[in-house]
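User: Good morning. I'm curious how calcium ion would be positioned relative to this chain. Could you predict the structure with it bound?
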Amino acid sequence: MDRRKFLKTAAIGTAASAAFTTNLYARYTKTLKVCLSWPKTLPIMGEGALWFAKRVEELSNGSLKIKIFGANELVPALGVFDACSRGLIDGFHSGPYYWKGKNMAFALFSSFPFGMVYDEMDPWLDFGGGMNLWRELYARYNLIPFKGGNTGNQMGGWFRKPIKSLADLKGLKMRIPGLGGEVMARLGVKPVNIPGGEIYTALERGVIDATEWVGPSLDLIMGFQKVAKYYYTGWHEPGTLLELTFNKRKFERLPKEHQAIIEAASKEMHSRIFNEFQYQNAVKLKELLSGKYNVVLGNFPEDVNEAAKKAMQQILDEYSSKYKDFAMVYNNIKQFFPTIRKWTDTLPKWYLDIRDKGFIVD
Ligand code: CA
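Assistant: Good morning! Here's the predicted structure, ligand included:
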């Protein structure tokens, strides 16, 4: 082969190879629509979902793209479950307790009042059977859930008036979802479930008297400190799990590599969101304690805590006899929770207690 002919053939080869590569990616490039129950600009959670999309694109070398839609861009904030189940969208980032109206058992996957904290929830999901139960129940709705972050312990909420005793809760209208809302209802509160984006206006206009949201990390960004001055610690969401859920049939039709990438990137997002919540809660708590907002930070009185614990026990017992799936998940938790609690109480709790007696670093 003379040199000129060789160069010509090589050039054709390169062009053909480039075209083949382009076609290959064109053939396999897939875009999934994922909707959020919050704005995509919402720090930690919305930004976490955008980070997930970027990570999937990196890991798949651009062959899998995730297009993120904020709340109400494509479907309403709390319409994502149905839209995904029916295949109108491919996935969503939300919280399982929002769907307790469909199946009461879903509320247990978000963490429940006086239940497990993050360090206990995550082992339950991975090794205690929690994830298997969650997937089994969601499969009935043609959905497959992945862990989508955890908020850690959530604050009890913002109140316009101080809560000095159980009687002060009577008749209050409070935004509080999940089983926490049901506990509050038994203490005389009127719970309402409204999406994050609408809470501030409702509180400002007096449509509600109180709200919980997450913790200092996000609550100060929402501006609740401007319209309610009493901020309480709480027991209603001790380690709230978020979800990244996909349409099951659509997920199963993806190439195995893409399925594995979604699984891996969701795990990264899960721990990223939890870590950022812990970090931002600490940073924003410091800001709150500086006194610039004139907010009173406190704990609920003992009679509230005691009544709430009793109400929660009643709810668990009642719902277990009323709802078959709730009983199935709760029975699994009853096997796991006392076992891990023994460990938590034996070492981690003891350690935190003695660490606080005289600081090494202050
Ligand atoms: Ca909350």
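DSSP finds 13 helices and eleven strands in the chain. Residues 165 and 301 are 6 Å apart (CA to CA).
Let me know if you'd like a different ligand tried.
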